[in-house]
């Protein structure tokens, strides 16, 4: 899986700082040293790494302390925001011409996945944007490329414009655009020739096609597996052609991720799509924010923190945090939390935002449907005040009484009590208070705790 090494290293580093109630300058320096190594190892351009580290440091040290997040969480928030910004910040969408058809020129080196991506993009435009693209086979130097595009076109049931390999690409582009106008295609996707290396002849030809076709978008297809080379290729193409967007292919492979992180920063050209497999529907719009969260293993944890900030009484959260640390979280707190969480939205949606939650120890048996939660609530509400405060007094007759009172079985009650104990242990781990270093894996929780 792509980014695995980087994700693991960053997450390990962040785990160390996450639970900290106080973060010193030295803590940040230590952390940033590890982050720097992790990025360099992932083949991120060294200049990019340097800038990134400097800006995270500055922001992490200079930021105001927010009441609702621990300092450790705030540092993570900064890393996430900067990583997102590095990859372009906002999602960058494919161009739409004011006047149809929108002309898109696909460029790139041989083997990067250009022809495949051209077909994938056509499919995407039709499926997601309800468009009617015309595919154009303008790679006349690799005869197999024309055939390949035609085959893909057939598979998609989409027209492919081709004039064989004896007509110049400029002429092919010209005729294709007239045909698209006549036949009311709203996108023209021109698959141009690739080479093994960048050379002048190739660039000259691409410039001529560009001159004539006046593309609204020039998408450069690069192979993520080639790491820094992909970034260098992007830089050269960009200098010559003013590329408007990058498609990073083969992100499904075990690329270290450097290209995805550096391309925008080095070339100032946004990644617009990523290829996630060989199949025709495995092209996805690139979302910097989601990618950053994925690398940091945070899922939507930041959204969750924001949601919590606006819905949860901050003082109560602090109190709760203290209780969790001291292991005196009771069933009363549990009920209160249940109410608070419910205020945030549907339970499964909220839980779905916590990555790795279902994998966490003691969690996997908990069902996340509201019915199950209703049952749990009934059991808890059937407990006496004393039982809620101190479940350890729960003997057989108390358990039986609770089961009867809540319309459940003794097994249900036993299970809940067991889960509650497991949960308390896990909470303690997640607040970063355990001494068992290296074992805790509450990845992505950012120290934010939910009692489920
Ligand atoms: N795993 C994976 N394979 C991909 C992806 N995109 C393209 N490929 C594969 O990469 C190989 C090269 O793709 P092509 O589309 O033939 O390459 P090209 O860049 O068009 O090559 P030229 O036409 O010679 O310029 C093919 O086997 C594709 O199936 C991707 O996102 N993931």
Describe the protein's architecture and organization.
The chain has 452 residues and is α/β, with parallel strands linked by helices. 55% of the residues lie in helices and 9% in strands. It has 3 domains: 4-86, Up-down Bundle (Four Helix Bundle (Hemerythrin (Met), subunit A)), CATH 1.20.120.140; 102-285, P-loop containing nucleotide triphosphate hydrolases (Rossmann fold), CATH 3.40.50.300; 301-430, 434 Repressor (Amino-terminal Domain), CATH 1.10.260.30. The protein is elongated and about 90 Å long. Mean pLDDT is 81; it is low at 355-367 and 433-452.
How many beta-strand runs?
A: 8
Helix content: 40-55%
Topology order in helix (H) and strand (E) letters: HHHHEHEHEHEHEHEHEEHHHHHHHHH
Largest sheet: 8 strands, mixed
Count of individual helical segments: 19
> Given the helix and strand composition, which structural class is it?
alpha/beta
Output the radius of gyration: 27 Å
* Mean pLDDT across every amino acid position: 81
What CATH architecture label of the largest domain applies? Answer: 3-Layer(aba) Sandwich
Going across the biggest sheet, name each strand in turn: 3-2-4-1-5-6-7-8
Could you say how many structural domains there are in total?
3
Keywords: Cytoplasm, GTP-binding, Hydrolase, Nucleotide-binding, Ribonucleoprotein, RNA-binding, Signal recognition particle
Binding site for GTP: 108-115, 191-195, 249-252
Catalytic activity: GTP + H2O = GDP + phosphate + H(+)
Subunit structure: Part of the signal recognition particle protein translocation system, which is composed of SRP and FtsY.
């Amino acid at each position: 899986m792509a980014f695995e090494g980087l994700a693991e290293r960053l997450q390990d580093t962040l785990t160390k700082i996450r639970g900290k109630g106080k973060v010193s300058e030295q803590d940040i320096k230590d952390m940033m040293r590890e982050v720097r190594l992790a990025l360099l190892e992932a083949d991120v351009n060294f200049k990019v790494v340097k800038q990134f580290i400097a800006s995270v440091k500055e922001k992490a040290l200079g930021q105001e302390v927010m009441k609702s997040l621990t300092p450790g969480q705030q540092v993570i928030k900064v890393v996430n925001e900067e990583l997102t910004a590095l990859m372009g910040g906002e999602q960058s969408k494919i161009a739409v011409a004011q006047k149809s058809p929108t002309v898109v020129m696909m460029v790139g080196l041989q083997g990067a996945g250009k022809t495949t991506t051209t077909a994938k993009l056509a499919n995407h435009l039709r499926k997601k944007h309800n468009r009617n693209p015309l595919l154009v086979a303008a790679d006349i130097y690799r005869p197999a490329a024309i055939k390949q595009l035609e085959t893909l076109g057939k598979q998609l049931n989409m027209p492919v414009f081709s004039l064989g390999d004896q007509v110049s690409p400029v002429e092919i582009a010209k005729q294709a655009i007239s045909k698209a106008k006549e036949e009311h295609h709203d996108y023209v996707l021109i698959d141009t020739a690739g080479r093994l290396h960048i050379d002048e002849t190739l660039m000259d030809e691409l410039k001529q096609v560009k001159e004539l076709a006046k593309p609204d978008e020039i998408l450069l297809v690069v192979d993520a597996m080639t790491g820094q080379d992909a970034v260098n290729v992007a830089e050269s193409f960009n200098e010559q052609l003013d590329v408007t967007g990058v498609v990073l292919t083969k992100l499904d492979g075990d690329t270290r991720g450097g290209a995805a992180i550096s391309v925008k920063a080095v070339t100032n050209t946004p990644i617009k799509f990523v290829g996630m497999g060989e199949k025709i529907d495995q092209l996805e719009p690139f979302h910097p924010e989601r990618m950053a969260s994925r690398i940091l293993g945070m899922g939507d944890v930041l959204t969750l923190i924001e949601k919590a900030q606006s819905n949860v009484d901050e003082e109560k959260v602090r109190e709760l945090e203290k209780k969790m640390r001291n292991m005196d979280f009771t069933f009363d707190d549990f009920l209160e939390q249940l109410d608070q969480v419910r205020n945030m939205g549907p339970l499964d949606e909220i839980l779905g935002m916590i990555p790795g939650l279902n994998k966490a120890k003691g969690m996997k048996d908990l069902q996340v449907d509201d019915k199950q939660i209703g049952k749990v609530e009934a059991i808890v509400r059937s407990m006496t005040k004393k039982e809620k405060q101190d479940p350890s007094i729960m003997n057989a007759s108390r358990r039986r009484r609770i089961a009867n009172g809540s319309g459940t079985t003794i097994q249900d009650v036993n299970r809940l009590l067991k889960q509650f104990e497991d949960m308390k242990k896990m909470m303690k781990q997640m607040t970063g208070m355990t001494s068992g270093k290296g074992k805790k894996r509450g990845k992505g929780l950012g120290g934010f705790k939910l009692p489920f």
